[in-house]
Predict the structure.
Amino acid sequence: MERFDNALPFRYNKSSHRRLGYYVSICLILCEVASFNMNKVPQRVSSFGIGRLTSDILLSKASADSNGNGKHKAEALVIRNAGTQTMIDNWLKNAKVVTDSMKNGKTVRLHLPVVLKTLQRLRSTDNRASYFALISKIQSSRIAWLNIADKPIDTGGALPVEFFNEVSSMIYRISLTCDAQELRLVSKFLLSLLHNYKKSMERRAAFDLKVKTKFFRNCLMPIARTESIALTTEALGAIPMGQENLKYLTELAFYYHSSQFTKVVCQLNKINSGKINLSANEIDAFFPLFFGIIQSSIMYDDEQTCVRLITKLSKDWGYQIDPHSRGLLLELCEKYAAYQVMSVLEVSSPLLEWKRLQSQLTWEEFMRHLSYLNVDLFKENQDLDFLQEKLSIVGPNLKAWEIFLHKIPDNANPSLKSFAVNTILMYLVANKRLPFVLSILEHLINEMGYAQQLVDSGKLLSISKYSGFHCLFKAFSVRNPAIFSSYTLFKFLEQNPQIPFKFTSLDFYYMMQACLAGADHHSLYFFLFQFIKIMGPSFYVDNQGKPSWALPTSIEQLLKHKVAKGRGDDRIMQIVNEIRNWFLEHRSSASDTGIDSAFLKQAFGDKYLPNLTVKSMIALEQKHRNKHTFSGDEQYYLADDLRSSRRLQRILDSLMGNINIKQL
């Protein structure tokens, strides 16, 4: 590697006046650890010993007492009084087998995730003294490590590799505020860390690739910032075989921090020519390096380097620059009039472009844009709920909506047409009364031929639970409670299994909620019976030999508060409890799929309704008129409900005549 003093000023800014306070604090705490007296104030120690001291902490084997009997220092500490004990001391004292094991020279057991989480917390709060004290105690103690499942971790007597990853993050954080002299000291320690990391990794070959990449970033970037050829060359030699991308990134960082701009451009050309292809983990870990190069290129009026690098990152490699970094670059572009870079930054962010389209395009324009992109919503999960808000501009009358329906793009693929139909239905169900919704359904099916699109809306990946027929159950419950319309749709779906539809708890919730609109609620028992018959077995859970059965919370609350308490009908909860007991007594495993029909009818008793008819509804009302004189939650008109039910039946008949059964 060469050094060019006349290169452009890509130099790391050194601070000649920064004190070595944090290193002194580390050395102080290490001296405290050595004496195992956390209450004394130790003498100052030169910061130049930090490399040796930190190496002793993490890289060397735990030392024995001078008497040679093999007793570890941390073991001797356990028997000291509680007033001088630290957090790790308490862990060691309370660890398993501590009473006998300490005497026999055995190990204590600690859970690795707990210790790591503590270190991470100390690092995030920048509590460096406690952090390195904890590392020192861990290294000087004989510990058997357990994972989160309470299983032993084979470390071969060395520290688990997780500690290397954690300490590298702490050292990297410290290095960001180092001056040149301090950085060289840290780099020497990081070189030792790199050499020893390979030995620990031999026992943990399946370690997370993302974590490994971050470890190498934490070690290699501070070394490259020293601008030392000797240190950087040694770091390159410590990189494992086959990790050519890491070597490339280290060289790029060295050239950048040592102001060798010509070399930086040559390295970047390897990316542009396709000789180097970085993984997502590598780009994410080393993005600060690319960010620094982009910033410097903007300041020194090299827009072409920026444009090529940003394009490679975003377009070819699919990396999304975070909003904060993008904002900083845009501010820099404005300051240095880098308009080409600014344009590329704006175009390279699909998210920003998506947000802009959301705010500026109308519903019709956005649908055309989706059609142009040929988005397949049967296979892609897209968050498009905001499109419902754009429907508020459509006129209030039926004619305006019929005109609007014809704005669905004719050349849109089937998934987009199904999505358009479903989006319109969802908006209307939430904002219009039932007769209006049925009128739109009639127009979609009879005039526009969108019967197939309505049925296929159940295939939409992002809203399958709220699509098509699911949406209609809500329409029969919220604004115009319609018991017979709910019953008509339920029987239609039950009797036409060729239609790909699966009932959900929410569907039955809406069916039962509609039954609470009138003065009499007993039609609810029909839907409750069907609900338990169809979905009851799925509510049985066997959790490690502890079986349980419970209705979904929303339905149980509806029955308990709206019916049992609100209507004074305690029988409904008695039925639920009987069914719960039956499942707990008769279900040997959760794989059983049925409930005994005879028992279910017996449990419902006189509340069992085989079907709903006008005659049965009137009979129910007369039977319970004297017992329950409660008013409904909403106004319910039987005549309107019957009219809507007959209208719905005609729509469903028309739908069956206009769909391709073979395609379902």
Summary: The first strand starts at residue 108 and ends at 111. The radius of gyration is 35 Å.
